[in-house]
UniProtKB/TrEMBL annotation, chains A, B:
Compartments, record wording: Cytoplasm
Catalytic activity: (R)-mevalonate + ATP = (R)-5-phosphomevalonate + ADP + H(+)
Organism whose genome encodes this protein: Nyssa sinensis
PROSITE patterns the record matches: GHMP_KINASES_ATP
Protein name: Mevalonate kinase
Domain GHMP kinase C-terminal: from-to ranges: 303-356
Pathway: Isoprenoid biosynthesis; isopentenyl diphosphate biosynthesis via mevalonate pathway; isopentenyl diphosphate from (R)-mevalonate: step 1/3
Keywords: ATP-binding, Cytoplasm, Kinase, Lipid biosynthesis, Lipid metabolism, Magnesium, Metal-binding, Nucleotide-binding, Steroid biosynthesis, Steroid metabolism, Sterol biosynthesis, Sterol metabolism, Transferase
High-level lineage: Eukaryota, Viridiplantae, Streptophyta, Embryophyta, Tracheophyta
Amino acid sequence: MHQTRERERMEVKARAPGKIILAGEHAVVHRSTAVAASIGLYTYVSLHFPTDSDNDDTLKLQLKDVALEFSWPVGRIKEALPELGSCLASSPTSCSPETIKSIAALVEEQNIPEAKIGLAAGVSTFLWLYTSIQGYKPAMVVVTSELPLGSGLGSSAAFCVSLSAALLALSDSVNLDYSHQGWLTFEESELELVNKWAFEGEKIIHGKPSGIDNTVSTYGDMIKFRSGNLTLIKSNMTLKMLITNTKVGRNTKALVASVSERTVRHPNTMAAVFSAVDSISKELATIIQSPGYNDLAITEKEERLEELMEMNQGLLQCMGVSHASIETVLRTTLKYKLASKLTGAGGGGCVLTLLPTLLSGTIVDKVIADLESCGFQCLIAGIGGKGLEICFGGSS
Amino acid sequence: MHQTRERERMEVKARAPGKIILAGEHAVVHRSTAVAASIGLYTYVSLHFPTDSDNDDTLKLQLKDVALEFSWPVGRIKEALPELGSCLASSPTSCSPETIKSIAALVEEQNIPEAKIGLAAGVSTFLWLYTSIQGYKPAMVVVTSELPLGSGLGSSAAFCVSLSAALLALSDSVNLDYSHQGWLTFEESELELVNKWAFEGEKIIHGKPSGIDNTVSTYGDMIKFRSGNLTLIKSNMTLKMLITNTKVGRNTKALVASVSERTVRHPNTMAAVFSAVDSISKELATIIQSPGYNDLAITEKEERLEELMEMNQGLLQCMGVSHASIETVLRTTLKYKLASKLTGAGGGGCVLTLLPTLLSGTIVDKVIADLESCGFQCLIAGIGGKGLEICFGGSS
């Protein structure tokens, strides 16, 4: 087991991107097509095992962005979660309700401050994925992220994907080139394994996730999805988006329910609205996949995408999921003739603004200054980039 | 001809209401249903003939709101428009292109100030309707209006309807109770005659009017229309709207064309959008026609109408006909939880805000103050009230 030994001395860093919904949110619940894309903003998970000389018998988790640190003696974990000793890294399973309870107790012992209690489910997911894949082994795991938490950009999925990847990278279940310098991509079958584990992790955080976020985060690029069927699509253009986080918290379940209630009250109208959204998503996917030739063709494609975004936004307003903060972003970007739409659940959250290839940096700076003066957070990200990647560091 | 003599000594005043589109603008061009309603804001036309002792041989027109006065010697009119001598008040005809030219020359002689040149077509319509119905007869016609001009509230139709009605009321073609005190309604067949003349007048102003504005102004209440078919509908509820005039001028033809172009680019999406609007118009008509029982039922109906207005507005945004000024009105009224939608062509123009029955006057005052502080003009009007009415004054 020379390879295992070598791995155990390594540090691995995994990164997985966030996602946006380009078109079709809400309507997708009513059997319309939606399109999601990865964004060039990542969550990073680094993992290493202490050497024997460290004499350290604890599992440590550092969440750098929220300045939280947790640590559990591995004996305590083994005692609390004996059933996870028989897990196989190569066979993802779901976390049983009983195990969730035992894990919750382990998390509770850590006394998370009240203001950050929303992170408890993420910590539970960590304990479960860690123990299921690596067993009762001391380690140090550090998490950092460029993604704002809980704003609909798939931060939890990016966490689950990068964590699962780091854990699997140092397990017997994957076969990697450990001598590779720089970022490395997984093989297809390994990506599938990561995606499955990440989905199981997402379940602990979200209950019934759609699987879209972890799939986009794992594979990158874009996916088209409808009625539970996901299709990876190959983007043929470089898209850049301004992502404005309104910082207005929303209740996704309540928003989804309100659209369903409106659908019950106005079945014919809403069926037509969902059908319009379906057409928009399909057209958008076609444009993104079509080959681009030159600057002119790219500008034309961007204009078409902008029009589709404006139309989708109108239909989302028709569904009643916009919000005053979203309207403020729309108004602000419209002043600069830029097209925007909400992304995700609406009712606050994030707004996308397409930044055309030929748009001057001066304009971008002005828009951002305007939006930040409203108290919003602005992020610029490339769309449809790479998914999960890992990188090996020297032995520590 | 005792009756004729009596009429000639009378003063008649006619009033005709403006209109709003409650649902379906733009989509109606693409075969969707739309609903229009009369509003309790009127254009008034008063007419009287000078007595023989006045020794006045001129036709005078006073447009009070714009402080303009015109006068033509009747001999000059007869000389310029000899072909109108054979017109019958009972048989509306279209104004020929040649006659329009001769009339334009008569209007030009009046030297309308450059800033008010937009009123020239209305003055042409006046000369044509007057001469066609009353011939070459001296008279004094005074026009006042509660409707802002050119803002999509049907001011030109209200002018044509009230003018045609006043002219017909003092002609042999209608049979009225001249001794009636107060406002009087025309008989069905007389309304039809007024409506036809008004439509011919509208053609001079608008080229190819839909006939909706003059029909609503003539008959009052509400009409449902689709593919050129108009159906009068009987409203069963009292509706009050705040009408906000953004004062942003728009180019209706260009807006209609832009929706058509978008329809060519995205046929499937737009077909679904128009179908959604069609459902909204039909549902709105059904609610308005359904019997209301008590305050609770009225509140429920109002909430349903508000939701339909919000949905229609989203679909109009999807068509791309909203405007920053419209969005400002929407935002402002939303602060007070009031639902709004643009009415008419969009791109500026007027915005409707439903004022629920149980809404306090204090809130209404606050909303209006907010909107006026943005430079908008606010009008409050009952919806679906009476159409054309006339009133006889004493002999002058």
